[in-house]
Amino acid sequence: MYSGTGMYSLGEAARLIGVPAPHLNRWLFGYHYPKERRGERARLWSAPLWTPQLAGEGFEDKVIGFHDLLEARFVNAFVRQGLPLIVVRRCLESAQQLYGVKYPFTTLRFKTDGRTIFGETVRQAEKEGVLVDLRNRQVVFSDIISPSLYAGIEYHQDQAAKWYPASRREHVVLDPARQFGSPIIEDTGTPTDVLYASYLAEGGNDHAIAQTAGVYGVPARFVRSAVRFESRLRQAH
Question: What is the CATH number of the domain that holds 168?
Fold first, then answer.
């Protein structure tokens, strides 16, 4: 039913893109915050940056899709550079209107045209009283929209279709059309977490690599790729 969409819990998504789960929750599901108004405390609502792909599907827990995952990765890059979220929101909205797509940050067009959108957004934010260092805005933006941020994303008709989170030589891919977008070995479709769990169960050594390869019928080099990938995910948290 959800083939081509991908499906990730907030915890899974947080591990994959290196974003704290509470941040993802705020960005994609909105949040309330207190504010003083005329001497009285009010509880205001900040809407999500966009509506997640799987919103309204009736899941018990919050889940997001493949495009949500990659777009949030770009939002995180903006925020980590110290940009106010209102600037990120305005930039997102401007790009959505210009390109006519829901997920503009991960399009190839934003990679080349985004600097203009960003500059206009910053100027608008300044008019609204948001403090932004205008002198450095282009430098900061160049740091964010760098080749490394787009490396590993494979496109189809200008939209992200697959993501290789490590080097393509590792053969680990997130493809929303396969295994609900979970990390797999591209050549065999075997989930990396399954191979990693088997590797640990077999002792977590060179012998375990060979044993796991035999059990799942995948080359040992792919088991090593899965182990390296899953190990990095766990070391990052």
Answer: 1.10.10
